[in-house]
């Protein structure tokens, strides 16, 4: 005996009686009914439908012998399989069929099932609710158990596809036998399923079945041996809420803490009183109640055509004292849906009756079966508890689910707690509501269960899928340098903006450290101090040469070229002002250009000095044609001509690809180096190369003139100065290329300072020594005497 099925029967009968007593619905028309037991068998269902249509005990297809009234529609069935078989027959005649339990998505096909309706949500809406619940708790790795029923297997496969489509994964989908008495083969297969479930990393197991008593399978001992699993039941499965555990099945402690998507259980006003006052004498067919009374009251009923003998059941004929009915009568699933199904059909009949009356038709309900479908589609009313009933284009009602938490009571009863709702017609995130604080999990969990193949990747890491495994199985690897992730389970790391850099944990971006050679750096202060010191020294040397400009040693070395060289050295020492500090557009344009032109003037002056020495020495020879070239005009022209070449290179550089300020975020992690980009590397090295060419030419000329008489000879000092100059700039190139950021700038400043200091020291310090320390050597007589002594040798 299935107490739930009896309650469905009573809910159906109660709805019929209520409509017949309601003068506002179908006045003067009485609804009758014909009930056939499908026995959960498709073949029996087919025979039952034909029996109802033909009104014959031995049904004859296409034959009707109704003595009173006629069939207007069919209510049922509970399962999808039997509903499908019923629809195959009723669909031929276009009889409307309203199921109160079939949730299979195949009935959404209006071409195949144009006159099929249901007052329970279709499975697709349940799938969406289940997926939202999985997402809410972040259950990404689940298992599915289903029965051998064809509809169950079809629905479970669709559920699996929807879960995968949502981004979660299914570890397994296993089929279990329906029978309680198992064959050896069934038992072997079941044990393998139990083993697979117990070893799975999936904590959440979805039990999907349209068989109402499928949950009883999990009361057997082998399931109770499995701990640490969270069971999630589909809507069609009946819970044990309000029903004691059957005598032949152990207490279902396994189900303690389970969750279920339950079809909305609306309240049926007056139904509880109706059940408590139910009596065989008032029921149309007392034989229907005989098995129920026999089991509940332990007494037998005898009934005939004209009398009902209740002598054996005296004092026990009322259901109000029977413990199963003392609980909430609305707690059974599908009771409310069968109640609303009858009301929906009655409203459609009423609307059709009203329409016929308004058009002057007779008051009898003579119609073809297919005519009622249009009125069923237009049904829209509110039940007494405020629940709206209407059918969508697919013949479905909007999905309303209760989310229930099964809790084992101390008296071996399973009670349910409503912990949430799902409403398909709500918008977005408002569809699902769950009161997580109200959920009582199984005692094996001390917190909300976790169900995932791999632990979440924390911010700063990204997911890398494991080979040949679902997308929910992955490894977590740190983000690459320069990248971050600020969300859990990030599939890709992101790059920070150019002015930012990932934190140490790579879970956020922090402002980069701005780096450039500034006066606040110790290195900048040191270089600036050295440059200023040499600037002062050069200025002092220039002052000495100006003061002693009429002395022989100053005059003998072309004092105009000396002044030009000293001034260019002073400016070269001041070039550091363009290299130290925050780079800007103007400073970047002037840095290399000013340095190149100033240094070219200095090197050109040295070259002019060397050439002047050679011309002056050779001009003293008899009949020399070089005498007309002796003078400042030639040396000045040479300086101007050599410098002009560098100026042209710099102008071309500025016009074609000028230097510009650049933020270098690649050279050093976590830093943004402010620097000047040369714009054209070729132009930069052309400037350096041209200076190097002049320096090398000066070195060669000075080296060849090193043995000339001392009175005119600066060649030895120039040779050493050019050797220092060339050594510095040859070393500069690899050092410059191997450094980055402010150290690259420091290398160039050091090269400028070193080469300038080399020129200053090698060319001018010996002369200053003579001028200041040995003035006795700074006389014309000494120079002439030294010259003649050289010639005598």
Describe what you observe in this structure:
With 793 residues, the protein is of the alpha/beta class. The protein has four domains: 3-120 and 318-386, Rossmann fold; 123-264 and 399-438, Response regulator (Rossmann fold), CATH 3.40.50.2300; 461-511, no CATH class; 550-792, Up-down Bundle (Rhopdopsin 7-helix transmembrane proteins), CATH 1.20.1070. The chain is 43% helix and 13% strand. An eight-stranded mixed sheet has the order 5-4-6-7-8-13-14-15, with helices on both faces. It has a three-stranded parallel sheet with strand order 1-2-3. A three-stranded mixed sheet has the order 22-24-23. Helix 3 links the parallel strand 1 (74-75) and strand 2 (97-99). Helix 2 runs parallel beside helix 3 (80-93), helix 4 crosses helix 5 (150-165) and helix 10 (335-358) packs across helix 11. The N and C termini lie far apart (143 Å).
What's this entry about, in short?
43% of the residues lie in helices and 13% in strands. The protein is an alpha/beta fold. The strands form eight sheets. It has an eight-stranded mixed sheet with strand order 5-4-6-7-8-13-14-15, with helices on both faces.
């Amino acid at each position: 005996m299935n107490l739930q099925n009896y309650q469905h029967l009573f809910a159906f009968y109660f709805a019929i009686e209520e409509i017949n007593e309601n003068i506002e619905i179908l006045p003067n028309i009485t609804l009758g009914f014909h009930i056939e037991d499908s026995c959960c068998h498709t073949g029996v269902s087919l025979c039952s439908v034909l029996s109802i249509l033909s009104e014959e005990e031995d049904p004859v297809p296409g034959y009707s012998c109704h003595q009173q009234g006629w069939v207007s529609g069919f209510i049922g069935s509970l399962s999808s399989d039997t509903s499908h078989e019923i629809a195959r027959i009723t669909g031929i005649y276009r009889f409307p069929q309203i199921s109160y339990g079939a949730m299979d998505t195949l009935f959404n096909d209006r071409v195949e099932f144009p006159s099929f309706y249901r007052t329970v949500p279709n499975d697709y809406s349940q799938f969406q609710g289940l997926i939202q619940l999985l997402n809410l708790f972040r259950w990404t790795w689940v298992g599915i158990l289903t029965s051998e029923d064809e509809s169950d297997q079809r629905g479970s496969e669709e559920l699996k596809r929807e879960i995968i489509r949502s981004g979660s994964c299914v570890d397994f989908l296993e089929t279990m036998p329906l029978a309680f008495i198992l064959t050896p083969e069934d038992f072997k297969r079941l044990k393998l399923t139990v083993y697979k479930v117990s070893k799975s990393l999936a904590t959440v197991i979805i039990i999907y079945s349209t068989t109402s008593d499928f949950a009883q399978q999990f009361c057997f001992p082998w399931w109770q041996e499995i701990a640490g699993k969270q069971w999630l039941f589909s809507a069609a499965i009946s819970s044990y809420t309000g029903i004691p555990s059957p005598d032949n099945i152990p207490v279902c402690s396994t189900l303690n803490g389970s969750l279920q998507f339950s079809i909305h259980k609306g309240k049926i006003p007056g139904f509880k009183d109706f059940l408590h006052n139910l009596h065989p004498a008032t029921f149309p067919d007392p034989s229907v109640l005989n098995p129920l009374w026999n089991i509940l009251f332990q007494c037998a009923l005898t009934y005939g055509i004209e009398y009902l003998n209740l002598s054996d059941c005296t004092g026990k004929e009322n259901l109000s004292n029977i413990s199963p009915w003392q609980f909430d009568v609305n707690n059974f699933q599908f009771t409310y849906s069968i109640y609303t199904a009858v009301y929906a059909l009655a409203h459609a009949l009423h609307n059709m009756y009203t329409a016929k009356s308004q058009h002057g038709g007779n008051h009898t309900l003579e119609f073809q079966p297919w005519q009622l479908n249009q009125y069923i589609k237009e049904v829209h009313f509110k039940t007494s508890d405020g629940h709206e009933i209407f059918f969508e284009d697919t013949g479905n009602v909007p999905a309303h689910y209760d989310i229930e938490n099964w809790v084992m009571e101390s008296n071996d009863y399973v009670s349910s707690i409503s912990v949430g709702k799902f409403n398909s017609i709500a918008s977005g995130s408002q569809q699902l509501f769950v009161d997580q604080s109200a959920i009582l999990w199984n005692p094996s969990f001390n917190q909300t269960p976790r169900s995932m193949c791999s632990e979440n990747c924390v911010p700063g890491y990204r997911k890398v899928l494991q080979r040949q495994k679902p997308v929910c199985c992955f490894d977590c690897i740190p983000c690459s340098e320069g990248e971050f992730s600020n969300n859990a389970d990030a599939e890709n790391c992101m790059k920070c903006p150019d002015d930012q850099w990932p934190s140490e944990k790579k879970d956020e971006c922090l402002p980069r450290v701005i780096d450039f050679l500034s006066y606040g750096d110790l290195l900048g202060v040191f270089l600036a101090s050295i440059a200023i010191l040499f600037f002062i020294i050069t200025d002092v040397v220039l002052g000495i040469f100006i003061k002693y400009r009429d002395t022989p040693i100053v005059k003998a070395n072309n004092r105009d070229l000396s002044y030009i060289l000293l001034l260019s050295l002073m400016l070269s020492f001041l070039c550091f002002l363009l290299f130290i500090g925050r780079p800007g557009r103007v400073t970047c344009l002037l840095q290399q250009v000013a340095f190149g032109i100033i240094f070219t003037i200095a090197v050109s002056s040295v070259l002019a000095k060397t050439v002047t020495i050679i011309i002056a020495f050779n001009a003293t020879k008899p009949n020399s044609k070089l005498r007309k070239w002796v003078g400042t005009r030639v040396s000045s022209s040479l300086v101007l001509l050599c410098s002009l070449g560098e100026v042209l290179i710099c102008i071309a550089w500025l016009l074609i690809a000028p230097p510009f300020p650049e933020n270098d975020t690649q050279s050093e992690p976590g830093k943004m180096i402010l620097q000047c980009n040369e714009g054209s590397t070729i132009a930069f090295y052309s400037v350096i190369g041209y200076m190097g060419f002049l320096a090398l030419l000066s070195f060669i000329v000075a080296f060849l003139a090193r043995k000339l008489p001392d009175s005119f000879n600066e060649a030895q000092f120039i040779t050493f100065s050019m050797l220092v100059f060339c050594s510095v700039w040859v070393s500069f190139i690899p050092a410059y290329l191997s450094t980055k950021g402010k150290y690259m700038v420091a290398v160039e400043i050091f090269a400028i300072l070193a080469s300038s200091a080399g020129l200053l020291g090698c060319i001018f310090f010996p002369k200053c020594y003579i001028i200041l320390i040995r003035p006795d050597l700074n006389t014309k007589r000494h120079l002439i005497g030294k010259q003649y002594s050289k010639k005598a040798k």
